[in-house]
Design a protein that fits this description.
The chain folds into 2 domains: 171 residues, 3-Layer(aba) Sandwich (D-Maltodextrin-Binding Protein, domain 2); 138 residues, D-Maltodextrin-Binding Protein, domain 2. Helices cover 41% and strands 16% of the residues. It is α/β, with parallel strands linked by helices and 360 residues long. Helix 3 links the parallel strand 2 and strand 3. The strands form 3 sheets. Strands 4, 5, 6, 9, 10 and 11 form a 6-stranded antiparallel beta sheet that branches. A 3-stranded parallel beta sheet has the order 1-3-2. The chain has a two-stranded parallel sheet with strand order 7-8. The relative contact order is 0.16. The chain is globular, with a radius of gyration of 21 Å. This is ABC transporter substrate-binding protein. Keywords: Signal. GO terms for molecular function: thiamine binding; thiamine pyrophosphate binding.
C-alpha cells in the first residue's frame, strides 16, 4: 500500500507542488509497482473526514492504489468549502475528484468547474439505479451514496408510530417534535416532502413553511440545526418524532436511543453524495477510473455496512443487519429527488420565510 498524505484545505492552497501531482521519483514508482498502468501517478481527492474518510479509505482508496499503482492524496473539505475551493482554483485546478453532498454539483457543472462524464465512461453503469446516473446529462457526476430522509420515531413515545409526513401536525406529538432548521439541507428537503403531502409541491411551498413554522413558534416543536443537536433532542428533550436521515437514525440507535426510521406512506426523499471530475486537470481518465471504483458493489457494501448509506449499485451484497438499515433495489426507485437547480434557486426565499416565522 502507498503512503498517502492527508491534507488540510490550507495545505492544498499553500503548496504549488500539488499542481505537479503527476510527478514522482523513480523510487516511488518502484514502491507502488512499476508494472501497473498508473504507477507513479497521483490524484487529489476530497474527503468529508471522520468516519466517512475511514470507510472511504477501506472501500475505495486502498483498493484503487493497490490495483492501479497510482497514489491518492486526500484533502478534507465539506461541500460548500469544496465548491469554493474549485471555484477559486478554476484557472489552475489542484483537485482531481471532488465530492458534494448538498447539491453543489449543479452549480459546479453550470459554471464549468467539473467535467462531464458519459455513462460509457463508467463500467458499473448497467448495474446502477437510475437515480445514480440521472445527473450525467446535466454534466454532473454520478450519485455514489444516498441517505434516505424520512421520519425518526421514538419507540417509547406515548403516541403511535407515524405513517405520514402530515403526522408531524398530529396533536398526539404536540410538544415532542424536532424540526431541522433550513440552514441544514435536511430541513429543506423535509419541508419539500411536507409540501408534496399537502398538495403544493416544490412550486408552492407556502403552506408547508407556514404550518411547520407555526409548530415551532407555538412551542409544539423545537428547531435543531445539526445532527448532534438532534441527538440531544431525543436524549434530553423528550422528542418523539423528527424528520431526518436514515443513516443518522442508526447513529442514534448506536448511542442507545430507542428510535426507528419510518418510511412515510408518501415516500422518502434523500440527500445525495456525488463524485465529480474537476475540469482542467491533466489526468481525467484516472479520475473517472477512481469514481468507477467508488461505484463498485464492494465499495458500496462497505459504506452500507459501516455508515448505513443506501447503495446505488444493485449488485451490492449486504449482511442481513445492514440490509435492514438501508434501502435497496425497488425501494430506492421510489425515492423522490428534487432538481438541485430548483432547490438552489428558491432556497434563499424559503429560508427567509422560515426565519421570519420561527423568530416571532
Amino acid at each position: 500500500m502507498n503512503t498517502r498524505r492527508i491534507l488540510t484545505a490550507g495545505a492544498l492552497v499553500a503548496t504549488g507542488a500539488l499542481v505537479l501531482a503527476g510527478c514522482s521519483t523513480g523510487d516511488d514508482t518502484a514502491a507502488s509497482g512499476g508494472d501497473k498502468e498508473f504507477a507513479g501517478e497521483t490524484i487529489v481527492v476530497t474527503s468529508f473526514g471522520g468516519d466517512w474518510e475511514k470507510a472511504f479509505i477501506e472501500a475505495v482508496v486502498d483498493p484503487f492504489e493497490e490495483e492501479t499503482g497510482a497514489k491518492v492524496e486526500l484533502i478534507t473539505l465539506y461541500s460548500a468549502d469544496a465548491l469554493a475551493q474549485v471555484t477559486a482554483q478554476k484557472a489552475s485546478p489542484q483537485i482531481d475528484v471532488v465530492h458534494f453532498s448538498g447539491g453543489q454539483e449543479f452549480t459546479a457543472a453550470e459554471q464549468g468547474l467539473i467535467a462531464p462524464i458519459a455513462a460509457d465512461d463508467l463500467s458499473e453503469t448497467g448495474d446502477l439505479i437510475d437515480l445514480a446516473t440521472a445527473g450525467l446529462e446535466r454534466g454532473e457526476g454520478p450519485v455514489i451514496q444516498l441517505a434516505p430522509i424520512g421520519l425518526v420515531y421514538n419507540t417509547e413515545a406515548d403516541a403511535p408510530a407515524p405513517t405520514s409526513w402530515l403526522d408531524l401536525f398530529d396533536e398526539a406529538y404536540a410538544g415532542h417534535v424536532a424540526l431541522t432548521d433550513f440552514s441544514n439541507t435536511y430541513g429543506v428537503l423535509s419541508m419539500l416532502r411536507v409540501a408534496d403531502a399537502l398538495g403544493g409541491g416544490i412550486d408552492d411551498t407556502s403552506q408547508a413553511i407556514t404550518d411547520l413554522g407555526a409548530l415551532a413558534s407555538s412551542g409544539d416543536a423545537i428547531v435543531v440545526p445539526t445532527s448532534p443537536d438532534l441527538q440531544t433532542a431525543f436524549a434530553q428533550r423528550d422528542t418523539w418524532l423528527a424528520p431526518y436521515a436514515m443513516d443518522y437514525a442508526g447513529t442514534l440507535q448506536d448511542a442507545g436511543l430507542p428510535v426507528e426510521f419510518i418510511v412515510p406512506e408518501e415516500g422518502v426523499t434523500a440527500s445525495l453524495i456525488t463524485a465529480n471530475v474537476v475540469e482542467g486537470r491533466d489526468n481525467p481518465d484516472l479520475a473517472k477510473l477512481f469514481i468507477d471504483f467508488e461505484l463498485r458493489p464492494e465499495a458500496q457494501a462497505v459504506f452500507a455496512e459501516n455508515m448505513r448509506y443506501s447503495p446505488v449499485n444493485t449488485k451490492t451484497e449486504l449482511s442481513d443487519e445492514a440490509a435492514d438499515n438501508v434501502l435497496t433495489g425497488d425501494e430506492l426507485e421510489t425515492v423522490v429527488v428534487y432538481a438541485p437547480g430548483d432547490v438552489a434557486a428558491s432556497r434563499p426565499a424559503w429560508t427567509d420565510e422560515w426565519n421570519a416565522l420561527i423568530t416571532k
